[in-house]
Design brief:
Elements (H helix, E strand, L loop, with lengths): L1 H7 L5 H18 L7 H24 L3 H22 L11 H20 L6 H20 L6 H30 L9 H11 L1
Length: 201
Amino acid sequence: MTSYVQQQQDKLPTTGLLALAATLTIYILSLIEPCKPPVHITGIILLGGGCLQLLTGIRSQQQGQAYAAATLLPLGIFWLSLISYEISPQLGVGRHPDSITMFSFMSLWGLFVAILFLASFRQSVAIQTLYGAMMFFFLALAMDHLRDDRVFLYLGCSVGLFASLVAVYMVIAQGYNRIRGRVVLPLGEWDTIATKSDDIN
């Protein structure tokens, strides 16, 4: 069991997961008017989190963790590009894109995460849940740019916050399982589920 944990726990590095949770949370808060933080704080966290995800993705690629690299590198680019779309116009640099542009932008990223979601069915349940929630988050925000009732905005933000909590849980579970040398906080690894199923049969 110890070797199994060591092999599985770093598929998505904890640094990248924490950066993802931070960027997701601050961006969601920036969309909700009563909770909206100062724009420069949002920009700093998006910039730092995006760069951290990029660096973690590059390091994962160098270590041969192609799955983590394929996730964190594009997401790092997303947060950095989002700064030019959402943050810079609020600081007086450039102008905010129109609704169709933002709909296309968010839809394409939703499609990308959908591909990650489809490729995650042999991964852990936690990773599947993270990708599924993020896919819904992107697509809901895309639809929000075509509607004025804000329904999709609040749905997307709720699911996005859930995705952040899943990422944080994965960090805690990976760290605690590593310390204990066995699975204490389950992530729903495929091999573990298959083993339990064989034991029942």
